Amino acid sequence: MNDIQILIDELVKFRDERNWNQFHNTKDLALAISIEAAELNELFLWKTTEESENVDRNKLKEELADIFAFGLLLAGKHGFDVKEIVLEKIIKNGEKYPVGKSKGTAKKYNEL
Amino acid sequence: MNDIQILIDELVKFRDERNWNQFHNTKDLALAISIEAAELNELFLWKTTEESENVDRNKLKEELADIFAFGLLLAGKHGFDVKEIVLEKIIKNGEKYPVGKSKGTAKKYNEL
Amino acid sequence: MNDIQILIDELVKFRDERNWNQFHNTKDLALAISIEAAELNELFLWKTTEESENVDRNKLKEELADIFAFGLLLAGKHGFDVKEIVLEKIIKNGEKYPVGKSKGTAKKYNEL
Amino acid sequence: MNDIQILIDELVKFRDERNWNQFHNTKDLALAISIEAAELNELFLWKTTEESENVDRNKLKEELADIFAFGLLLAGKHGFDVKEIVLEKIIKNGEKYPVGKSKGTAKKYNEL
C-alpha cells in the first residue's frame, strides 16, 4: 500500500475512534485547512524573509502536518487519489505557465 | 520510490524549469498555502453544509491539489518526510485528545 | 474628528509606544489581518450554522476588533480614508451585482 | 451620525436590495472576511517586503474595503459598536503587551 493511503487510513482510524466523522463535513474540513494554514503563517508574522528560514523546525513540522492531515481527510472523504490530482494539476499549471513565458517571473498567468 | 517523493520531485522539476526557486522562500510558500486554502473555502461560501457536499468535484480536486503542491514544496525544501511528520502528529494529537475525553465532542483540547 | 480617525490615532499611539512601526510593513499587516480572520473563523469550526449564531459574544467582539485594528493600521499607513474606500467599493459592487441579476442569489458576478 | 454607522447602513441597504440577508449568517460572514483577507495577501505573494510597499494603491484599497465591508456587516448583525470594541481591545492588548516588556520586540505575549 502506498504512503498516502497509509496516512489516510491512520487519520480515518483516529477520527472514527473519536466519533468525529459527524463533524467532518466538506465545508468544515476546508475551513480547518485554512485555520491550520493561518497557524503556519503565524510562525512568520513580523519576521523577515531571512529570519523565517530559521523557523523552529518542530513547529514547522507540526503546522505542516496539520494541513496535510485535514487535506488528506478531505481527499479521502471524496475518494480522490492524491497522487493523481496533484500530477493532473501540474500538467494544467504547465499550460497556464509555459516555460517560455513564465521563466524567472512571479507574475500571475493572467498577467503574463 | 514512494508516491510522496514522486510528487515532490515533479513539483521541484516544474519549479526549477521556471526558475521559481528564487521566489519559493519559506514565508511565501506558507502564504501560498493559505491563499490556496482560501480559494478552496470560496467554493463553499454562502452555501449550506449540505449544498457544500455537492461541490463541483473538478474544482475541489484542483483547489486541494494546489494546497498539497505548496505543502509538498515546503516540506521538500526543509527535507521533511511527510509520512513521518503526519504520523508523529497523529500520535501527538492522540495525547491531546484521548479517546475517553474527546469521543463525540468537537471541543478543543484546552476545553475538554 | 470622526470615529474612524480616532481609532487609527489610538492604534498608532499604541504601536509607537512599543516601537512596533518597524514590524508593521504592508505585507505583514496584511498577513496579520488574515491570521486574525482565521482566529475569528476558528470560533465556528465544527459548529453548525445555527450553533454559530450563539457564539460567545465577547470572543466574537475580540476577534472582530483585531481584524479592524490591523485593517485600520494598514489603511492609516497608506493614508486611505476608510469611509471613502468602502463607499467606493459599494458603488463598484453595485455594478458587478446589479439588483435585477443578483437578487436572491449567492452566485458570483462571473456566473450571473 | 458617525461614519461607521453610515457605512453599516449603506452595506445593509446594499444587502437588503439584493435579498442577501438569507446568506449572511455569522459563520459565512466570518468566512467571507477570511477569503477577502487572502485576496489582500495575494497582492504580496512572491513579492519582497520592499516591493510590497509599492503595491497598486487601487487594488489595495479595494481588497481592504472588502474586508471592512464584511467586518462591518458582521459587527452590525450583532449590534456591536465598532469604536467601542476596538478601544476595548486596545486596552486589553495594553495589558497583554505592557510597554516595558514589549517595546521593540515582535514576540508574542506568551513569550515575553
Secondary structure: helix percent of chain A:
55-70%
Can you count the helices of chain A?
A: 6
Overall shape of chain A: globular
The greatest interface between two protein chains, and residues involved on each side, is: A-B, 66 and 66 residues
Tell how many strands the DSSP assignment of chain A holds: 0
Distance between the termini of chain A: 41 Å
**Low-confidence segments of chain A:** none
Strand portion of chain A, in percent?
Answer: under 5%
Order of helices and strands of chain A: HHHHHH
Question: What is the topology?
Answer:
The structure is a homotetramer of 112-residue chains.
Chain A: H1 3-17, H2 26-42, H3 49-53, H4 57-77, H5 82-96, H6 99-102
